[in-house]
Design goal:
Length: 71
Amino acid sequence: MFFQSIGVPGLIIILIITLIVFGPKKLPEIGAAFGKTLSEFKKSANEIMGSDETEKKAEEALQQATDPVKK
């Protein structure tokens, strides 16, 4: 992926460009908005993963309940 090859110098350049474009007064607001967006994304991803695991467990329980006893 592209982001794996950025490295520290690339991040510094991105930070400098962001500072020039938005200015020092807007950076805290942008950082807070980015943090909130990232936390919402992680929360949604965890909910989706949790619902997938719940569905798998329910399917397994249903399959065990309907299958004849194996010996």
